[in-house]
Specification:
66 residues, 2 helices, elongated
Length: 66
């Protein structure tokens, strides 16, 4: 698999989490219940995967190579 394909797949995963965050926020605005810990879990994902793993690949490997 080409490295950029992996990064694009990771973008898809990150976008799914962002969409879930938006949906959860909309639910809260309507007074609906959101699972306890959802936002903490999403934050952990963003810090760990998006910032810690994905962005490190882009900024540390891909962008310098370009």
């Amino acid at each position: 698999m080409i490295a950029t394909d992996i990064l694009m797949e990771e973008h898809t995963i990150i976008k799914r989490v962002l969409t879930a965050l938006e949906t959860a926020a909309q639910r809260l605005e309507r007074g609906q219940v959101v699972r306890a810990g959802f936002f903490i879990g999403a934050t952990d994902f963003i810090k760990g995967f998006a910032d810690g793993c994905h962005h490190r690949k882009e900024e540390g490997v891909l962008f310098p190579a370009l």
